Amino acid sequence: MGWHTLVTVLLGLHFAYLGYVVFGGFLAWRWPKLIWPHLLAGAWGVAVVGVPLTCPLTEAEYWARRRAGGRGATAGFIDRYIEGVLYPERYTFALQILVGVVVLGSWAGAYLLRRRRNRTANTATKTEVSS
């Protein structure tokens, strides 16, 4: 595999990971056990934005770019491919709040669905025992 192809694959993985961080909590509505990896992904997302930490996918992309003969680090993934490209930079804080609301909403929905399923299962069990 060529280095340019590896860069492209790493960029695709990065976009997929960001999509998972934002919308992955909704997968837990269907598959409740997926809430745990999403909690970790969300914590990592907050750490990368808040601390800030360097994402390993970004480091891998820079490494592959250097191997392909390009420049290494110029800006972070979000700074280069998201801010100013998908939305104007002045809306960054508002979008961070929106992403937080979406993630917390997906977690709240997963919790409520799990509670409802447990309540339904307990009711069904009680009905079977009493009959």
TrEMBL record:
InterPro entries according to UniProt: DUF2784 (IPR021218)
Organism field: Virgisporangium aliadipatigenens
Protein origin, superkingdom: Bacteria
Protein name as catalogued: DUF2784 domain-containing protein
Presence of keyword Transmembrane helix: yes
Pfam families in the cross-refs: DUF2784
Residues annotated as transmembrane: 6-27, 34-53, 93-113
Entry keywords, A to Z: Membrane, Transmembrane, Transmembrane helix
